[in-house]
Amino acid sequence: MRKKGVLLSTIILGLALTACGDIRNLNDLKEAIGLTSDSSGGDAAQEESTNAESLPASQEYVSSDGSYQVTLLDGLTQSNLSVLAGSDVMGLDGDSQRKGFGAFCIRSPKSNIPGNPGSMESLEDYADHIANLMTKGSGISTDWKDVATPAIEGALGCLARESVIRQGTSRGQAYGYYLETENTYYSIFMAGNDDDVEDARQILALEILDETSGKGGTRDFLDGMTAVLDTVNGGSIRDAYHMLEEGGADESTLESLASQARETLSSSWGIENTAALMETADSLINGMHNPDALKLLEEYGGLGETDRDAFDAKLTGQNLDQGTYISLLAAYDAWAAYGESAIAAWDLSRVGTIMGFGYASGYCTYEEALDKTLEAALKAKELFGSWEDFNQSYLYGYSYWAEESLTDPESSAGERAELVHDMESQVNGPFALGWDIELTKEW
User: Distance between CA 425 and CA 274 in Å, rounded?
Assistant: First the structure.
């Protein structure tokens, strides 16, 4: 496989790092964006000239999910990236024809944006986040200025910014175009030498085709299984690491991510080898916390109790600490809703996450990570009848485990409940995919 341009690899790495801790071992972004030296006057060589009578040759690039298309310079190499359920990232690499030029385009539902920036208050906040995601930790300085913005029919807002990008005595140009609709943010970020970026700006166009479209396959279902935690983490470590590996990232970059992934598995799960990874994944599939929750509920007389208020009163009279009280009520609510399956979704949802970290750690292959996640998805379809049921069981499980109330907006449990609600309401979100689709091995 042809090695991806450094710009595209840097973008993927930036997204991957949010799922694995804030470590930075970036390739030299000076190479990535075609920075030129102030003293030398820059590399002005062009493969095609631009004048007032002739626009640069252009090409339309359609996102992998068919939801939007971008018009940019002709001959760019397109890479379709998947780092977060519901989002589409398209990389456009100019290595072959315009050395150093690159662009990336992102469509993401408003409640699950790559990099986990938290709540976006405005399109300006979103633009700040994307620019920061691109350049953070690279040693690159920017000075963004708002410029005239091409309007798009149907958009709630549009914003365009430009900046000289500097690193030491070298410089380049960057341009960002940002758009929002009721449900979605879009961004186009491109960088390179002055002439290439200017050519690209002359022909740049973004067209929204169908915000409700999606691929709708098994991989999308698996991404939905881990969508909440991937959003909290900022992206899928499995897919981000895979893209870096397939794209020919250098060994030091891969090892930095692998080291962080190994540390996460060791400190959070006690997993330090392949056998422990597979044993833990099987335990989650067969029920790790769910049996414990039911057993605890039985000890306190919750199993068989049909009146929640009566059970609540029973707990109140036992002088329990607040954490235990919350856990027991969460277990009761889960049992009342889903019986023996109770908080099984809490266990099943995390299989894909630990297998993704296991893949990045070198404890399993990419295919093995997907295979085990598929096992968890098939089990989930046996136990639950919809995304709503799966997600509610997940939330009860989180409340049980964290000892936090889902109705407390200041708690992490409350924040996850709000996140799930937002994601379920998205017409193009990770849970818009039908629960009843047939799952098959697509890899």
Answer: 38
Structure-token pair, residue 69: 């298309």
The answer to whether the beta carbons of residues 38 and 171 sit under 8 Å apart is yes
- Contact, 104 vs 90, CB < 8 A? yes
pLDDT tens-digit map of 424-439: 988 778 898 899 999 9
Kindly report the pTM of this predicted structure. 0.78
Contact 441, 369 (CB under 8 A): no
Q: What are the Cα distances from residue 330, in Å, to 123, 188, 279, 292, 327? A: 37, 43, 27, 13, 5
**Which residue in the block uniquely carries the two structure tokens 């906040």?**
125
Which DSSP letter does residue 47 get?
Answer: S
Question: What confidence score (pLDDT) does residue 377 get?
Answer: 98
Torsions phi, psi of 109, nearest 5? Answer: -55, 150
- pLDDT tens figures, 267-295: 999 999 999 999 999 999 999 999 999 99
Q: Is 256 in a helix, a strand, or coil? A: helix
CA–CA separation, 160 vs 197, rounded Å? 14
Contacts of 144 (CB under 8 A, 6+ apart): 131, 161, 162, 163, 176
